[in-house]
Every structure is written in C-alpha cells, then in structure tokens.
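Annex B. Sample input.
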Amino acid sequence: MRSYRSSWRRSSGRPSRSRATSGAASWTPPGRSTTSTPRTTRIRARPCSWRLDGSGPADMKLARVLSWLDRTLDCAAFDDVSNNGLQIDREGDEIAAVAFGVDASAAFLEQAAKAGAQLCVVHHGISWGGGIRRLTGSAYAVVRTALKHNLALYAVHLPLDANPKVGNNRELARAFGLSDCEPAFSYHGHVIGLVGRLEDGRRVGVCSGGGGEFAEEAKARGCDLYVTGEANWGERIAAENVGMKMVLAGHYETETYGVAALARALKRALRVSVALAPVPPKIDLPA
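Annex B, continued. Sample output.
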C-alpha cells in the first residue's frame, strides 16, 4: 500500500512508511514468529512460498506484456513515489516466462533467472522519486543481477494497491469474505483501501503494507477491526487511544495477494508462462 518509499530509510535506499498503534490495540495472527517489545508485538519478516508454472507460449513479445500491464493497472493515472512501469530493460524482445514478486531484490532476480524468466514484475521496484542518482550498494546489486541474466524489471506500486480487480486490498477483502465493500483511505490523492463487512456483521477496514496511519480513519468510518501490514509506534498509540483494534499481518505478507492475482490475470489474458509467483499466506482475523 501507499508509499513503500516512505517506510524505507534514505541511507539504505529502501522505502518505508509507518506511524503506529499500540500493542493493546494491535493483534498478530496466531502461528507466526514474533518478537515482543514493550506494549507491542511485531511479526518477523519471512519469505513466502513460491509457485512455479511452466506453461505458456514461447514467442511472447516484451512490448505486448508491458502494454497489457500499463493498460490493466492504469499506471499513468497515479501520482506515486514509485516510478511505475519498466525500470530495467533487456536485450531482445522475446519473453518465454514472467516472474512475479513483492520486492526487487537481487535474490529474487536470481530465483527468477533460475526459473527461466526474462521479465520480473514486482510491487516494490528500485526507482523512486527522482530516480537512481548513484548506482551503488543495493541498487547496484539489483542492476548487476538483472544485466547478468538479461532480465527486464517492471514495478507497480500504488496502482496495484488500488486496482479494483487484482489489487492487494481487493484480494485481501476476497480472502476475508468481505461484502458491501466501499473505497476508503486516500494516499497521494488516490483511494487505495476499502471497508467491508464480515458475515457476522462486523465492519473491517483493509489497507495493505504500511497503512498504520489510517487506523483513526477506520475508527471514524465505524470499523470494528482494521487490517494492515505494519504500523509505527505512534500509529499504534493512536489506534489504542481511539479504541481501534488493529491487525498487523505483515507488510510483505499483505502485499503478496495482489502480486499473485496479477500473475493469474496476465496468464489468463496473454497465455504467457508464469515462472514464479508468491503464494499468499492465510491471515486469520480475531473473533
């Protein structure tokens, strides 16, 4: 969700974003490895499972895949901190397979190459704001790996959070069985989350990634529960102060949902092979 950039430290070149809600107001799904700190519980980041699929035509053109992604996700309509779209090109236009992931890490690109992909589609790319000013450190490691394996890299941030068909939040709502969903939670002028209703009548707000800042708004919208990936300490305190029960299900975990859905949609639309895609983990909601 929202600015992955805002949650990253400048020194590391990564994005980040949180504001926080206190431990009394936040809840961690059972069965996850956690690290406890005073009045709060955090989920340790951990890799998701991956699915490999070898079917698809061998003569797909990169330009056709890019056109479908741009059109389906409507990237041009978003004012985003991410420079959405093609971030690293490749030699040649033939695409036999596409790999999908949440983050453009060197390790993911190595996995993609090993799986036989020529294009990597990610939620968090390497070009943010004014772009890459120095090709050093983390950015260099990713670019070096892409060039080594002749991999193209495509990134899509807010457009994937907000997409009404394959977006992270739409897919989370489907997984929770929410009905009567309505758009909610605006970031950079775009509504990216939603509020829906469980079978038991409870209202649930959903915003993937680092959406802790929307806990107070969720309460104001009459939510009984608010689900996001992560929140900073101040956001946790704010949620506690207004009595908003907040589920922190993991930044990475909540953003596997849209990535996996986009992979399925691309395969259906263009019959292109999906070499790699995350398998979203089950997220349990408290009673």
